[in-house]
Amino acid sequence: xxxxxxxxxxxxxxxxxxxxxxxxxxxxxxxxxxxxxxxxxxxxxxxxxxxxxxxxxxxxxxxxxxxxxxxxxxxxxxxxxxxxxxxxxxxxxxxxxxxxxxxxxxxxxxxxxxxxxxxxxxxxxxxxxxxxxxxxxxxxxxxxxxxxxxxxxxxxxxxxxxxxxxxxxxxxxxxxxxxxxxxxxxxxxxxxxxxxxxxxxxxxxxxxxxxxxxxxxxxxxxxxxxxxxxxxxxxxxxxxxxxxxxxxxxxxxxxxxxxxxxxxxxxxxxxxxxxxxxxxxxxxxxxxxxxxxxxxxxxxxxxxxxxxxxxxxxxxxxxxxxxxxxxxxxxxxxxxxxxxxxxxxxxxxxxxxxxxxxxxxxxxxxxxxxxxxxxxxxxxxxxxxxxxxxxxxxxxxxxxxxxxxxxxxxxxxxxxxxxxxxxxxxxxxxxxxxxxxxxxxxxxxxxxxxxxxxxxxxxxxxxxxxxxxxxxxxxxxxxxxxxxxxxxxx
Length: 490
What we know:
The protein is an all-alpha fold. The chain contains 14 helices and 3 strands.
């Protein structure tokens, strides 16, 4: 082989070797890619395996609970059936033989009759069962009589309800020859139908003889909600209470008042409500001012004990400007759901208002998500079950004890929940899916107000309104300085 041919061969081999190197590099890169993909698949498999195991555990727990409940239901049904037979069944049916005592027929020949000794044992067992039934009934009657006697002794109706005495006795001719030894006292509740009456007021007027310039002297006319109104505060309180506390519209109130013999027009009822609104405006403004001065404001239907007032604002729309206008002077934490106008109140206020979501609403989001992501939803609900257990333990504690319990027991749960919310399985859920909305949710009228606030403090609404309307009407007509915002009178 000459030199040129040898060089050509070397060049060919070099080219081929270079091509092999490129191919090997490509294969190596492809292998690295396959290894990376394999690693991701293993991680995905591990996550799916963990989800599967969690779902299996949850399913096994639910299945076990279901089986236990079924067994308990069957057991209780059998006990109920047995007790019913013992109490109310005919005597012949009050004792049912157990399965091992029933005669079994394994062939055509009838079973042998019991021996005299066996019959004696059966008869003795029957007598024992009958005696046990009688003893059970005797104790049951004694307990029922003791409970009834205790109720009669203590009185079954609240002590504050008016008592009207009524005496029932034999006629004199039937009492002849009898010796009186005691008075049996019982109580029964009675209700009177609605009643209305007209108060006729006679005001004596006087003049000074010979001095007409001094005019007529007399006591002023009775206070009315507005001068000249011919309806007493009790009528206005009844209209307002039925409308705002018991949700009776004015057309139903007409029928109620008709039972008293007076059938008002709907416009009359509405006029009386409007008078009440005007008179109570200062008290409503005072309530709202006190709430705005607090550091925490509970929105929507979110309630906790210890907050003194319910204040309602009416609006025809759900625009952001409505809520923002109500909270224009508020600085603190606004607690409410994360929907509608509440959603971005913190951003719109420039941080002046901090938004706290309601956990009752957030928990319902996880319940809705159960059909889409049962594992994540069940995990989220488990955190709430733990938190609710803490709250249950704190029901009987005072404020300081409840705070200490929450710091000790609830804060660690919240910390674990925060880590769970940041985990990869939760983060990969689509934000707009029902499951994605649940974690996302976590991140982030005048007269009716007065009636509702009275109701939450368990006041007698009609009596409260009579008192409040009279005092506010008096202040409005004769002492307007008492209605200034922040006054001790309010």
